[in-house]
């Protein structure tokens, strides 16, 4: 693994990103769940989902040169890197960071709200794209044009707050044939939907989706930096 920033983008690394935190933990969800992972949490998000657990990333943060971000990731000595937020794509230079991390040899994932165009994300990145349900309070922000761009490297995630959300998400999966494009993940919103109820619904309907709970919340609750 080469942590150096490739020479062909050195000029771009004079650009900076506003970062809330960079930390090592276990990936708590999606395809790389359980792997030791460096999380690069960018500051800022245009959405205000009612169940958001990272509102502390909406504001503040510090400016980092992209080369310094890559160097900080290298210090942790693991292969997996997750770029998250907030909404990381709300900072356009996030695309430069994603490319730099891929060129440095990392297994890179991006957690995105699905409200911003993903077309220019490096194809080596695994995109974990949220689809916002009616109970999220941000359903109108879904960018449906993103769905045809998804590939087998990507995942779609629904955070569900109740039975109405479940039925809505079930219809979206069917209408857009999402399970034929990539893995589809259903998660219960903490304190709003019983994990057992969601599991029972998925089994009863034989849905082609993966039930998941957020491992990091089971281990560390909502503690920042974990």
UniProtKB/TrEMBL annotation:
It is an enzyme of class 4 (lyase). GO terms for molecular function: lyase activity. Binds 1 [4Fe-4S] cluster. The cluster is coordinated with 3 cysteines and an exchangeable S-adenosyl-L-methionine. [4Fe-4S] cluster binds at residues 45, 49, 52. It comes from the Bacteria. It catalyses: 6-carboxy-5,6,7,8-tetrahydropterin + H(+) = 7-carboxy-7-carbaguanine + NH4(+). Homodimer. Belongs to the radical SAM superfamily. 7-carboxy-7-deazaguanine synthase family. This is 7-carboxy-7-deazaguanine synthase. It comes from Pseudoxanthomonas sacheonensis. The gene is queE.
